[in-house]
Amino acid sequence: LGMEFAGIVKTVGPNVHDFSEGDHVVGFGPSSFSNRPKAHTLSKIPLSLSFEAAATIPSVFLTAYYALHT
User: Fold this and answer.
1) By percentage, how much of the chain surpasses pLDDT 90?
2) What is the pLDDT of residue 1?
3) What integer pLDDT is reported at residue 40 of this predicted model?
4) Greater confidence, 41 or 26?
5) CA angle 4, 2, 33 (to 5 degrees)
6) How far, in Å, CA of 7 to CA of 27, rounded?
């Protein structure tokens, strides 16, 4: 619980090339309830997908992956 998040990229560091300010993203990482989560994984989402729906994707995917590979 609390490991997945979705939102809008506000700033990027100088070494970040795959994401830009304003990108809609979903991610997985600790401290996801904070206002500045640090993602272990991050992916862009389409504008048509709500943040609420996008935030469910990481845990569902990892649960299915675990079930298929253990």
Assistant:
1) 49
2) 64
3) 73
4) 26
5) 90
6) 9
